[in-house]
Amino acid sequence: MNDRHVALLTTFFEAFSKSDTDAMERCYHPDVSFGDPVFQELEGRDKVMAMWRLMLSRGDGTDVTYRAITADDFTGSASWTARYTFTSTGREVVNEVEAFFRFDDGLIVRHHDDFDFRQWSRMALGRPAGLLLGWTPMFRKTIRDRAQQALTEFQLS
To answer: Which pTM does this prediction carry?
Structure first.
């Protein structure tokens, strides 16, 4: 166990739970990369932080809780839950996420979140769309394309 890396992840999630993107940003290495089932791969602190600012600026707010933080000299992990209203449909979402990290120079250089896309789509879109389409590659591509477009527009604004 590396207490310094555990403290870094705790600081990150405390900031996340308070929507403090400036404090979140200080936890990331300038060359950080981020991936999840929606955004897939984002490179660089500016782009990763634009994604977090976009996500935290939407809807009625996001409630983030975290648990099970572990870290060694090179890697770390945590479980976290996001509760929010999906703005496109007004539906409540409770997303259970497993996060994986790599460290360099005492900062997070790789952050990957994993969650069940099918379960997320059922909550976010409801029935029948989320239930029937949530598993299809075409639907996932549509969601990913929309997310990338929203991120690009957010960065330009």
So the answer is: 0.91
